[in-house]
Amino acid sequence: MQQKEQQHIFETWLAGHKALIFKVVRAYAFTYMDRDDLFQEIIVQVWRSVPAFRQESSVATWLYRIALNTAIKWTRKEQKHSQSETLDSVQHILHDTDLRVDERLTWLYEEIHKLDEIDRSLALLLLDDFSYKEMAAILGITESNVGVKINRIKKHLINKSKEI
Q1: What one-character DSSP code corresponds to residue 52?
Q2: Hey, how many other C-beta atoms are within 10 angstroms of the C-beta on 63?
Q3: How far is CA 73 from CA 19, 51, 60, 66, 105, in A?
Q4: Domain limits at 88?
Q5: Tens of pLDDT, residues 122-144
Q6: What tens digit of pLDDT does each residue of 32-66 get?
Q7: Does residue 98 register a pLDDT over 70?
Q8: Distance of alpha carbon 50 from alpha carbon 63, whole angstroms
Q9: CA nearest 123: which of 26, 47, 30?
Q10: Confidence of residue 76 (pLDDT cuts 50, 70, 90)
Q11: Sign of dihedral through CA atoms 26, 39, 64, 129?
């Protein structure tokens, strides 16, 4: 693959799926600097993956797999994640400044951030309407395991919402 072709595919993927990457970043990194680092790491991995894409899955599934795997590896490598900086202070990364912050969405992402790696990944995939089959393929678990985990995540979030 020529670099010009790779650049075109890369830019097309980013233009069409940047929200997907932002969701993963938002769920796995908490501080401004960590989000910036993770975003850059994911982008590098996406660039490197362009020649390996064989169209055996959708681009969104491929990018989710790259973003989630990169985020999980990055989280394991980085032990400096601190919750000293609130989500409100880093909203400008993900939103235009003239948009109002939805408190429910902020709460949801804070709760997703507290989940373990697999559950966090499942929550993000569920928010993007991936099928159980697609989720299982992305995460390397069975469809029935996906269903069980999603039911547990939903129950957990419902219980947490009642505490507010």
Answers
A1: G
A2: 24
A3: 20, 21, 20, 11, 26
A4: 3-162
A5: 999 999 889 999 999 888 899 99
A6: 899 999 999 999 999 999 999 998 889 999 999 99
A7: no
A8: 10
A9: 26
A10: confident
A11: positive
pLDDT of 106 reads: 84
Tokens representing residue 2 in the block:
């020529």
The answer for residues whose C-beta is within 8 angstroms of residue 47's C-beta and 6 or more apart is: 6, 10
- The total number of structural domains in the chain stands at 1
**Cα separation, 158 vs 155, whole angstroms:** 5
DSSP-derived secondary structure for 87-136: GGGGGGGTS-TTSPP-HHHHHHHHHHHHS-HHHHHHHHHHHTT--HHHHH
Residues for the chain: how many in total?
A: 164
139 and 121 Cβ atoms separated by less than 8 Å: yes
